[in-house]
Amino acid sequence: MADPLLASIHAEPPTVTVRRDDSLYSVPLKRTVHLDIVFPPAYDEYPQKRTGGEPLPVLYLNDGQDLPRLRMTDVLDSLYQKKAIRPFILVAIHAGDRIQEYGTAAQADYMHRGSKAGLYTDFVLTELLPYIKKHYRVSGDPAKSVFAGFSLGGLSAFDLVFHHPDRFSRAGVFSGSFWWRSKSSEEGYRDETDRIMHDLVRKGVYTPSLKFWFETGTDDETSDRNNNGVIDSIDDTLDLISELVKKGYNRERDIRYVEVQGGQHNQQTWSQIMPDFLKWAFPE
């Protein structure tokens, strides 16, 4: 039986709606976490507790305070008008102390950045997901749950998805901070095995349900620590993809990599490539 929400979206000019500054207090983080919730067109006609219709897929997004700079509502409106994506709910999580809360839960980097990444993971799994499922019409099925982020928030999103396939199935990483290291890289050439996320993937397990989307911009940065003519952000991302392939993921089926010519480390570039990610994450 057809979902009335989907039928309604396709019957009228679609417009997303935004509920700004929802919030919940996090015990592990010891702070209030602010959220923006973006609903697909016609969502208000179908309250959470109604009968019939399937719960919607959900995208959790780090650095959710940047939705205006990403022009996210315009991007979504355009995609819904073109019927290019399935309806989903976007949970935009405002950052707190992003230098400490974003990172890899298993360990901080060599400067002790990311020291609260484990607590942030705790917040997401034990507080945020139950809160969203209780208050909104979202699916708890990991196959319909996506996590994404930008820069350090992208590293965090990848870490969450890779280590928790029981909760998520897809990760979106825009200009991910995969340089995250256990030792300083300032003194001469360094051992690339010091990159924390690459090491975690090597030590991790292959999960057939997981899929990954990566973006880098050719102007993300200028650093080229090994002088191979390729900027570090691209090198680090491609090396991580290689680790995933060695682990068993199929480069064609499970991984999408997008390199934006002239793309920079900013919201303008990420907004430009956002439709590609959303069509990959929520195909019509």
From TrEMBL:
InterPro entries: AB_hydrolase_fold, Esterase-like, Mycobacterial_A85_antigen. It comes from the Bacteria. This is Esterase family protein. It comes from Spirosoma validum.
